[in-house]
Amino acid sequence: MKHSLTDMIDNRSLNWISACQLLEQQGLAYCVATVIGEVGSVPRSSGAKMVISAHNQYDTLGGGNLEQQVINKARSSLHNANVHTDIVRFALAADLAQCCGGAVQVLFEYFNTQKPHVAIIGAGHVCQALAPIVKSLHCHLKVIDKRTDWLAPLSSLGIDTLQTDNIEEMIASLPDNTHIVIMTHDHTLDFELCKLALEAQRFPYIGLIGSEGKKQRFMFRLKEQLSNTNLAAQLICPVGHPDIKGKLPMEVAVSIAAQLVPLLQQEQNDMHELAKSNQHKKEMWKKVNAVTIDN
């Protein structure tokens, strides 16, 4: 029986090496958590590893509250793009109420995080054409919709999807600096999403599919309802490259992709420059080499 990539990614029985290989193939961000020091009675010895992604985890550090806290920290860092290599000490009895009574130090390393994030909200015809294009770019893509039947074809392509009808969750699920394209089947939903995204003041690009008429109506209402009327100016509508015309789903998709590409490239360049000047990992490995655990 042939398994899809989605089935394989959801297979939590994978060992940590296989999980890393699969996540690398998909270009998905993940954390490798490794026990690098121990004292007393602990669930797993030094060298034990597990892999944590946004939605899954693979292998184990022994289960229990320790493992849950490791997962929580890794996911929080992935979500907030706070992905510096880090070492955390866990006292199993004092901190985690585990009866083992020992202590461990865990090294957190993050991979595939130096990529821009793109979210498409609304999985209709244009999204079905746009999402595979964006997935082929060097970025993390998430598609959000309340309709499972429209998300299913995208999930089968290995695209990260979120099924929800909660608009607050739609926006809250996105990391800072995500490029958002809003194209739902409902103008009322479009407006509420635009308002929430603009109020958040943490997204560099908020694009809305629609006509000039739709833009004018939305801008009038946004200026009435936003806490700061100047925020409305950030909305890009009609979304897409102005020189690429057409109304067919693929034509609109190509136009939007053409507008996104230079923005994603610039963010990628900025990330590389930041990484080159960041000495945090070098300092952290000095810390690893000298690591000790006190009782």
UniProtKB/TrEMBL annotation:
The protein, known as: Xanthine dehydrogenase accessory protein XdhC
InterPro entries xrefs: MoCofactor_Util/Proc, NAD(P)-bd_dom_sf, Xanthine_DH_XdhC, XdhC_CoxI, XdhC_Rossmann_dom
Domain XdhC- CoxI residues, every copy: 25-81
Organism from which the protein derives: Vibrio viridaestus
Regions that span the bilayer: none
Gene for this chain: xdhC
Residue stretches making up the XdhC Rossmann domain: 118-260
Matching Pfam families: XdhC_C, XdhC_CoxI
